Amino acid sequence: MGKSSRTAPKVAVLMGGPSAEREVSLVSGRACATALRGEGFEVIELDAGRDLPARLGDARPDVVFNALHGRWGEDGCVQGLLEWLGLPYTHSGVLASALAMDKQRTKAAYRAAGLPVVDSILAPAAQVSARHVMAPPYVVKPYNEGSSVGIHIVQEAANTPPCLGPEMPQVVMVEAYAPGRELTTTVMGDRALTVTDILTDGWYDYDAKYTTGGSRHVLPADLPQEVFQACLDHALVAHEVLGCRGLSRTDFRWDAARGIDGLVLLETNTQPGMTPTSLSPEQAAHCGISFGALCRWIVEDASCAR
Predict the structure, then answer these.
(1) Which residue of 55, 178, 210, 238 is surrounded by the most CB atoms within 10 Å?
(2) What rounded mean pLDDT belongs to the chain?
(3) Average pLDDT, stretch 294-301?
(4) What is the C-alpha end-to-end distance of the chain, expressed in Å?
(5) Catalytic choice (129, 269, 278, 280)
């Protein structure tokens, strides 16, 4: 961390911002700020707007805790700003953040590392709305957003393609539907924590993630040992091949009918949700790491040139 004459290092917690995940980021940021104060840090909360460089200059923090989610905060943009300003910051650096946010390039990196994924293509949204560009069932999603924003599922019996609204980007990802259970594993530094089985009544979309009662988390997941260990191993490889730093979380689908061959990676999140009941803090707590201790570790791991 940066040097300071203060006994308590000053941490600027970035939250909010202009992305589609603004409200969730505010919740994460406030939770982290409260936890860091409890750990003895001096904390300033900054809602990230276009005046962020000036506000950081005025605040003069020792460390920046990045609690932003989605575009601009999770895709390398704010990381580049912090590198330019010479401020140590948390989570992944410019390249890893940009790479992990681009779902198609993430898959290319997974494939190169021998990790299992389903087939996908990028296609113009207008074309996807006009005809099936892939045999159903398939999933349509923005290729550069997080938190299941803008997900459309086209069922096997669908006669018509999805009607994509104006909120979708001009180019979208079309991905073969992966049936089965939703699993996730957090990596903390060089350690994969555990596996969570996410139970929902339907698709694990944005509402299921962030609405109270929208999903239930079972950890450690009740899985065959081979599948459980593969999730831990694959998450570590994904973290490493993407160049992630600090905390990351990799999501999987597992079709139990196919055994180990039914396990595929979906994506890696470089800015996991950070409230005490979010998936990654839950996994840390299961491993004996309190929310405050997790936030402290994230700050102590901060640096430039990540």
Answers:
(1) 238
(2) 92
(3) 98
(4) 13
(5) 269
Domain residues for the domain of 219 are 99-117+179-270
pLDDT 10s digits, 122-134: 999 999 999 999 9
Catalytic residue status for 249: yes
Is the same domain home to 141 and 22? no
For 91-137, list the strands marked E by DSSP: 120-124
Say which of 25, 97, 147, 278 is annotated catalytic: 147
pTM here is 0.91
Annotated active-site residue 267? The verdict is yes
- Are 195 and 159 found together in one domain? no
Q: In what order do the strands lie in the sheet with 181-188?
A: 216-218, 191-199, 181-188, 247-254, 263-269
Tell me: pLDDT of 147 over 80. no
Are 70 and 145 in contact by the 8 Å Cβ rule? The answer is yes
Q: Mark whether 214 and 167 lie in a shared domain.
A: no
Cα–Cα distance, 64 to 44 (Å, whole number): 10
Q: Do 112 and 203 share a domain, yes or no?
A: yes
- Specify if 170 maps to a domain: yes
Segment 116-120 shows an average pLDDT of: 97
Whether 301 is catalytic:
no
- Let me know: does 186 contact 251? Beta carbons within 8 Å: no
Query: Strand, helix or coil at 198?
Result: strand
Give tens-digit pLDDT for 1-59: 544 445 789 999 999 999 888 999 999 999 999 999 999 999 999 999 999 999 999 99
Strands in 63-66's sheet, in edge-to-edge order, are 42-47, 10-15, 63-66
To the query of whether residue 226 is one of the catalytic residues in this protein, the response is no
78 and 39, same structural domain? yes
Give the integer Cα–Cα distance in Å for 304 and 79: 9
Domain assignment of residue 275, yes or no: no
Q: Specify the number of domains making up the chain.
A: 3
